Amino acid sequence: xxxxxxxxxxxxxxxxxxxxxSPTPPTPLTPVRSWLAVTAVAVGTFTVVSTEMLPxxxxxxxxxxLNVSDGTTGLALTxxxxxxxFAAPAVLVAAKRLDRRIVLAAMMVLLLVANTVSALAQNxxxxxxxxxxxxxxxxxxxxxxxxxxxxxxxxxxxxRATALIFGGVSVASVVGVPTGxxxxxxxxxxxxxxxxxxxxxxxxxALLLVLPPLPPGRAVRLGEIPALLRRGSVRVGVVGxxxxxxxxxxxxxxxxxxxxxVADLGPGPIGxxxxxxxxxxxxxxxxxGAYVGRGPHATLALAAGLLTAAVVGLAVAGAWTPGTVVAxxxxxxxxxxxxxxxxxxxxxxxxxxxxxxxxxxxxxxQVAISLGSLLGxxxxxxxxxxxxxxxxxxxxxxxxxxxxxAGRRART
Length: 412
Fold this sequence. Notes:
Blueprint: H1 31-57, H2 59-66, H3 70-73, H4 75-95, H5 100-120, H6 124-145, H7 149-152, H8 158-187, H9 189-210, H10 224-228, H11 232-252, H12 255-261, H13 267-291, H14 296-317, H15 321-349, H16 354-382, H17 387-411
Helix pairs in contact: 1-4, 1-6, 1-8, 1-9, 4-6, 4-16, 5-6, 5-9, 6-16, 8-9, 8-13, 8-15, 11-15, 11-16, 11-17, 13-15, 14-15, 14-17, 15-16
């Protein structure tokens, strides 16, 4: 099969042939088998993200159960994100020429063990060990799973399949974390982790049953991942990724106190708003999937622009509830579209190295989560709770301008 030569910095869809993003010729699959495989990966994404975020909803009972402070317990979330950032490239390099189906299954085994250890943890040190395993599982699963759509479905369906895989993130926010929190309230936080262990086992079986063999085209070398950053379009994409994700998490980490203090809402309305935010995120995810193949730059610019408008709207709405509702829904749609657009950008910028591009994506994403939460906390302590909304708007707005400029450059 001949390969089209694509300049990653000057890609013109109208004049250059669309690259084959698959590292090897795709395994022939029936349509039903293809979408079952995509769905299994999507449920795996849901499972790893739900596990990563579960301590958010169980912070107080975990603290009480292990006799540590809430602040100390929060390290469980930070640790997983930091480890995931390093695990994404490390797992790819270590996997070498292993079948990607087996690697994904191994990551789910790690998650199963991590959730089991969390459920049985007798002290905080054991929980931290479990969170190390969670981080490794997240990094490895994302680095491989994020780029699999190009190998599981026909080219015309890649956008929708990618949206489905990334939809696991939004569904985790809407269903996974709230359900885990509910289980923790009624049966104890250990049962919540045990339930995630059962789900991890079910996903492991599904991956082994429905995924076809997925041999890599070639082993990923350690130097290949930083080498991608020498490509101008990859560098710009990473800058946009860090800006918009840090801006989002800098603001969203503190959305509950914002809704309490700025919007003057109680627990019931806040729960409804967060549920609506999650549902809107699913909508944004699939809308972006329908358009990202035509232009990831434009998709990201629109999503980041909407995110900017939404957080500014939330800041100025104050106690005006209708404005708050609209702003939260817009925020959900915008953020739901962002990961799909960013992944589309990475794959378009490195069609010859989709797994390495996904590793760069995952590492940047996890670093941005930690950076955004940290800077948001500084803003809350030094200025005010609502200041994080302006912080998020500034970074998201910068991303919109950056993506728009990159899109215009790609068309010239």
